[in-house]
Design a protein that fits this description.
- By secondary structure, the chain is of the alpha+beta class.
- The strands form 5 sheets. Strands 1-10-11-12-15-9-8-4 form an 8-stranded mixed sheet. Strands 7-13-14 form a 3-stranded mixed sheet, with no helix packed on it.
- A hairpin with a 5-residue loop joins β13 and β14.
- The two termini are 53 Å apart.
- The model has no long low-confidence stretch (mean pLDDT 95).
């Protein structure tokens, strides 16, 4: 988060960063409130000093047997005034802290300035888009015809934007999750975590999903517990209020979880198929790093996610997001988009971000340098990968003329040696 100290010391940088994001926020008004807050604190300290002097004088006069009634009354009045101002300070502090939580992260200087996804920059593209000698079908056509996706029954039991993976479809979904985890843990050195699916409100604030994305998340009615929209929300809080050792950094974590998103505001978007779902599976990558290493670690994380798609043989491109298209907590973000020939679109399968110390300040996650100095860690997160759009790209790219779907060789051991989903 942007704390008060950062606000005071980097006012111009923050103001310029918000302008680049196209984010409207009255930072001047907030700075004035902070000045008022500090002025009130000074007034309290002065009143307390005055009361202390009165207390000393009262003690002296009392020893001398003199009348202290008037001084006691003055001391009482000062005490009442202190209590009154302290209440104002408490309310003002809460107001300032709530407003600070509304300020997004400041973009890194290397992020292109832009207002929408149209101004994102394609960094590189991998793989050749397959030329079909037939008209490739969409994943929902393939899924229904092969009996591996059931939208009708899912809609009957849960409503729109849900799907049932069935038979070899369920096996393929499970195979993808296991494959993603194996690559992350066995090849890239991440430690696997299986976190709670429900987290407390303070954890949602810690990862910066609150207050910004409250309408996007599912939560329990009787307790303020939130269903994970991404495992990032849990992993960002993994070392909450801890002081890590410099020698232990960087820390790499990965976690598979189902993810739940209300998709508020997406009415009419991607209503067919599994492009945009209320519930989906994802393997998350997460890092805690030293500040000076975080941007090198960002590039490594992007490479880790790319490697999975390369092993699957799915064409993709890496896109650097512009300032107006980045997430709330990110200082820099790359999206990895897979090519889906059936729907003839690039689909985001992974988003990889460096949040710098934005989340760490909210969760109070620090590390101690060898010289004893305490600093906030930098946090990074990325999908490695989300299954729905990987599933889409896989079956659409590997579909055959007879309606069957070939299984990439790297997945076959997770599917009991099955080489293809046969045509029906």
């Amino acid at each position: 988060m942007i704390d008060r100290k950062t606000l005071r010391e980097n006012y111009e940088k923050i103001k310029e960063g918000l302008k680049k994001r196209g984010y409207e926020f009255d930072i001047d008004s907030l700075l004035e409130k902070d000045k008022e807050y500090r002025k009130l604190l000074t007034e309290i300290n002065e009143l307390k000093a005055k009361r202390n002097r009165l207390t000393d004088e009262i003690k002296k006069l009392k020893r001398e047997g003199k009348d202290i009634g008037e001084l006691i009354e003055k001391s009482r009045e000062i005490g009442n005034k202190i209590e009154e101002i302290e209440e104002d300070v408490k309310n003002l502090e809460k107001e300032i802290e709530n407003k600070l939580l509304e300020i997004p992260n400041i973009p890194h200087e290397s992020v292109p300035v832009g207002s929408s996804s149209e101004e994102n920059v394609v960094v590189r593209e991998w793989g050749e888009r397959k030329e079909f000698d037939f008209e490739p079908k969409s994943h929902w056509e393939l899924g229904e015809k092969l009996g591996i996706l059931d939208f009708k029954r899912a809609g009957s039991m849960s409503g729109s934007r849900f799907v049932i993976y069935k038979g070899l479809g369920a096996l393929l979904e499970r195979a993808l999750v296991q494959f993603f985890l194996d690559v992350a843990t066995k090849e890239h050195g991440y430690t696997e975590i299986f976190p709670p699916i429900l987290v407390k409100e303070e954890s949602a604030y810690g990862s910066a999903h609150l207050p910004k994305f409250d309408e996007e998340m599912y939560k329990t009615l009787d307790e303020k517990l939130y269903l994970l929209p991404t495992a990032e929300m849990a992993l960002a809080n993994l070392h909450r209020n801890e002081i890590l050792r410099e020698d232990d950094l960087p820390l790499y974590y990965t976690a598979y979880t189902p993810c739940f998103r209300r998709e508020a505001g997406s009415y009419g978007k991607d209503v067919r198929g599994i492009i945009r779902q209320h519930q989906f599976n994802k393997v998350e990558l997460f890092k805690f790093t030293k500040p000076e290493e975080s941007y090198d670690e960002l590039e490594k994380m992007v490479s880790d996610a790319e490697r999975i798609l390369q092993k699957l043989g799915i064409p993709y491109r890496v896109v650097l997001l512009c300032t107006g298209d980045m997430g709330f907590a990110a200082a820099k973000t790359y999206d990895i988009e897979v090519w889906a020939p059936g729907v003839k679109r690039w689909l985001e399968a992974s988003s990889v971000s460096n949040c710098e110390n934005f989340q760490a300040k909210r969760t109070n996650t620090r590390f101690r340098r060898k010289d004893g100095k305490l600093e906030y860690v930098h946090t990074l997160n990325g999908s490695g990968l989300a299954t729905p759009r990987t599933f889409i790209a896989l079956i659409e790219n590997y579909q055959q003329k007879d309606g069957s779907i070939l299984i990439p060789e790297v997945l076959r051991k997770y599917m009991g040696g099955i080489e293809k989903i046969p045509a029906q």
